[in-house]
Design brief:
The chain is α+β, with helices and mostly antiparallel strands and 134 residues long. It has one domain (32-128). The longest helix is centred in the first third of the chain and has 18 residues, at 2-19. A hairpin with a 2-residue loop joins β4 (87-93) and β5 (96-97). It has helices at 2-19, 36-41, 64-69, 102-119, 121-128; strands at 46-50, 56-61, 80-81, 87-93, 96-97. α4 crosses α5 (121-128). Strands 1, 2, 3, 4 and 5 form a 5-stranded antiparallel β-sheet that branches. It contains 5 helices and 5 strands, in the order ααββαβββαα.
């Protein structure tokens, strides 16, 4: 009887160890950490600003190759912005990565548009002339 209990306990422990693991079930490595403290402490992510609603925006710029390697079903896609300079934008409030409300999403979108305009001389030129191409 004791051997059965010990053997059952060992098998259960091995199953739990085998099933437990970090990351998603597909086994793909996450590019966006799941903890705010890891984002804030990472040299890959740069703090950009705190919005009016108190969200801290951390950004990680990405190469086109990295973007192409992110699977379509990856949870990292939630933070991905594409365009000329693709990046991850991770919103943090009260030391937690947060889901954004519609208003907060609009605030972050406005911030990203501002960054896009700042980094592209063509956008600056067009907007500086009232939106008319010269």
């Amino acid at each position: 009887m004791r051997i059965t209990i010990v053997l059952g306990t060992v098998i259960l422990a091995l199953c739990l160890i085998g099933c437990s693991g970090e990351g998603d079930s597909s086994g793909a490595k996450r590019l966006v950490p799941t903890k705010a403290s890891e984002i804030a402490g990472s040299p890959d992510y740069k703090f950009e600003r705190t919005t009016k609603s108190g969200i801290q925006c951390y950004i990680r710029h990405l190469s086109p190759e990295v973007v192409a390697s992110i699977p379509a079903d990856s949870p990292d896609r939630e933070y991905l912005t594409t365009g000329k300079e693709p990046c991850f934008v991770v919103p943090i409030r009260n030391d937690k990565i947060v889901k954004l409300s519609k208003e907060e999403s609009a605030e972050i979108a406005a911030f990203m548009i501002e960054k896009m305009i700042e980094s592209d001389p063509e956008y600056k030129r067009i907007l500086g002339s009232g939106g008319r191409k010269q």
